[in-house]
Amino acid sequence: MGFSEKAGRIQNKGRSYMKIIETNAAPNPRRVRVFLAEKGIQVLYEEFTLNIENIQSDEFASLNPMRQVPILILDDGETITETMAICRYFEELNPEPRLLGETALEKARIEMWNRRVELGLFFAVAQAFRHLHPKMSEREVPQVSDWGAANQQKAIARLELLDHRLRTSRFIAGDTYSVADITALVAVDFMVAARIERSEEFAGVTRWYEEVSTRPSAAA
What we know:
The protein is an alpha+beta fold. It has helices spanning 27-39, 52-55, 58-63, 83-93, 104-132, 145-166, 179-193, 203-212; strands at 10-12, 15-22, 45-47, 71-74, 79-81. Strands 1, 2, 3, 4 and 5 form a five-stranded mixed sheet that branches. A hairpin with a 2-residue loop joins strand 1 (10-12) and strand 2. The longest helix has 29 residues, at 104-132. The radius of gyration is 18 Å and the shape is globular.
């Protein structure tokens, strides 16, 4: 049904997980990969081909009724879906380095900025891609080109907001690298596929991007 033949279990810090089902080129699975790379956690990834036949299969729906990746399948067969839910699961098991915050204030600040990035920039870029890219015509029915074009402009507006923040803050949520930076990094890189140009006039974003994109985890 579109899964690669890789299978099996992995061991991590005394616990056994089965695998993460993902599509390597998709942005949300990359967020999880970067998150786990920052923590030094190794897991088994199983590639899923995101075509219409595989997405509509009953087998895929049984793993995630939302028919999306990534999907974490635990050793007992239970599944955890949604990017941030998977990240939170691993953060609880392996707190260091903390990417979701340590104090109440840090956790709230990171949550606030991650939501701003996720529901603002990341969402707008995704909508532009889904409604304008020819390869999405089979899956995004109907494609609404005006909505895609509107979201290209929304993405630039959200990037401007981040630029204002990053002119005075080293990272998005403060002085420490966090999941908010991961979400933003993946969104900015996904702008290429969505055909949204990032202006070099955004000096704060450019400075930040040069730092976070050269972290080893960015290549995950």
